[in-house]
């Protein structure tokens, strides 16, 4: 969601500044960020249930009163929820996510998602005889396609694909090293 980082930072800054300015320094507040459907939702919870933030039309000479106007200009929607013990000021920003479950609906991401589900549910199978084997070339291409899909999935979820590749390589080397040494030491 790097395309809305600046807008999200501005909204967080303005919503938190409102608490500091209008409720007071040191006021306990909570920031909550979540994805709701295809929107990023930003909430600031504070204990002041007496006053609601208002959208004012600040004059050009005024040094105050622009916070909610900025949020209104940047966010797709915003509002205030009054709870018995707190006030929740929130806004939502549209993302490039195309599915309500918070995922990008690209074929590569969907395949990686399915693979992750299968991988998590899989239990080790004993070797079975009579099962056809993939040729080395087909197996290699399948693995490369799966790795590529996982990289797309990682990127779609805001992860650094290069960092993940480096971490996977380190884990592979750490896990493969004893096997390779043991394999080399065994007689032909």
TrEMBL record:
Keyword flag rRNA processing: no
Domain Histidine kinase/HSP90-like ATPase: 3-78
SUPFAM superfamilies from the UniProt entry: ATPase domain of HSP90 chaperone/DNA topoisomerase II/histidine kinase (SSF55874)
Xref: InterPro entries: Anti-sigma-factor_SerPK, HATPase_C_sf, HATPase_dom
Protein name: Histidine kinase/HSP90-like ATPase domain-containing protein
Gene Ontology terms for molecular function: protein serine/threonine kinase activity
Record has Lipoprotein as a keyword: no
Pfam hit, one: HATPase_c_2
Lineage of the species this protein comes from: Bacteria, Bacillati, Actinomycetota, Actinomycetes, Kitasatosporales
Coiled-coil regions listed in the entry: none
Superkingdom, natural source: Bacteria
The entry's keywords: Kinase, Serine/threonine-protein kinase, Transferase
């Amino acid at each position: 969601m790097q395309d809305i980082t600046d807008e999200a930072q501005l909204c967080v800054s303005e919503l938190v500044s409102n608490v500091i300015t209008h409720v007071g320094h040191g006021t306990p507040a909570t920031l909550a960020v979540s994805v709701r459907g295809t929107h990023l939702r930003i909430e600031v919870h504070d204990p002041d249930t007496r006053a609601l933030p208002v959208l004012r039309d600040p004059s050009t000479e005024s040094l105050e009163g622009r916070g909610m106007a900025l949020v209104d200009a940047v966010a797709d929607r915003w509002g205030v929820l009054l709870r018995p013990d707190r006030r929740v000021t929130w806004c939502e920003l549209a993302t490039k996510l195309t599915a309500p479950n918070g995922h990008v609906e690209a074929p590569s991401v969907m395949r990686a998602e399915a693979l992750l589900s299968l991988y998590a549910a899989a239990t080790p199978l004993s070797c079975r005889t009579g099962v056809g084997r993939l040729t080395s070339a087909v197996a290699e291409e399948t693995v490369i396609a799966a790795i590529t899909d996982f990289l797309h999935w990682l990127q779609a979820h805001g992860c650094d694909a290069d960092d993940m590749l480096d971490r996977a390589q380190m884990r592979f080397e750490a896990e493969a090293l004893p096997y390779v040494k043991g394999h080399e030491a065994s007689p032909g």
